[in-house]
Amino acid sequence: MRIIYIADIRLPTEKAHGIQIMKMCEAFGFQGLNIELIIPKRFNPIKKNPFEYYGVKRNFEIKKIFSFDLTFFWPILRSLSFWWQSFWFAIFSSLQMLFKKSDIIYSRDSLPLFFLSFFRENLVYEIHTFPKTPFLYKRIFKRVKKFIVITQKLKDLLLKIGISEDKILVAPDAVDLKEFEIEESQKQCRKKLNLPLDKKIVLYTGHLFEWKGATVLLEAARNFQFPISNFQNILFIFVGGTEKDIENFKLKISNLKLNNVLMVGHRPHMEIPYWLKAADILVLPNSSKEKISQFYTSPLKMFEYMTSQKPIVASDLPSIREILNENNAILVRPDDPRVLAEGIQKALKNKDLSGIISQKAYSDVREYTWQKRAKNILDFIIKRAREK
What we know:
Structural class: alpha/beta
Low-confidence stretches: none
CATH class of the largest domain: Alpha Beta
CATH architecture of the largest domain: 3-Layer(aba) Sandwich
Distance between the termini: 17 Å
Number of domains: 2
Helix content: 40-55%
Largest sheet: 7 strands, parallel
CATH topology of the largest domain: Rossmann fold
Number of strands: 13
């Protein structure tokens, strides 16, 4: 079986969707499929080869096609330049399909699927957020054969607009267990990363967007500063973020007069297992103020956290509860720095509880691997195709 995966993405990218796309292509390849990933040629500050950058096997092809990438020339007109690039990539990638044979055309992007819907029927749409104006997607929803969604809420919304249930599969995101099950001890990881050995480390990985709740965690750190707290020997570490976001975040740290926060910026994904192993507590502080966080997200960091065998403190949201619960994490009310601080204190004080939930999360995450996800998706697509 031949799958062509169309992705409007700058690759490599510091964003999580790059990991997800590369890992899924690799996992499809491990299922014995012929995979071709089509992406646009774009200006990219990251010069490393995508296979090396993400540490994936070269069991699929990557083809870059021309698109009018003006994002480098028009930083002031950022939204317009991104739209222009996406439009032309959709056109050119669709034209490519006139000359390519495939059993499945797979994409997370609506615009290429819209153009392809006029002459192709073997379309699979992986949805990570729900459109604000679904009536504009009417043709796509009508022509796409299968829908892969990452949360139950997304499935419910598709059902609500009339998509047949037998066309929808809920497939949460996943993790590469081997990548995160490293041999180094916590002490060795701290030495490798030049981190203090005498502090408790509370760690957050990922972007610093408001909906991800990083600012709430930053404000929670105030509760652990001397002389306010009995927990004085704690360091909060933020791994990730764009240069602009980090600059703004450092300004917030200065305004809050925090001396227990360390910003390390974006790190290569292959380095993240060492940061997780070096930590004592891992935090997933998603906000409830936006639907993408409350209902649509299936965070990659959540599954990576679960492999670390460290206690997780997470926001109690419907999207998060599809994977985490009181048995494998400490769930707290979102958007409340004080309550988040209490959850962190609970994990630090109650070592027995932290050990129990850490091991349960580690056990649960073994059901969420990229290869199992790829197999579930293929079984769903092939089964339906045979029924036809």
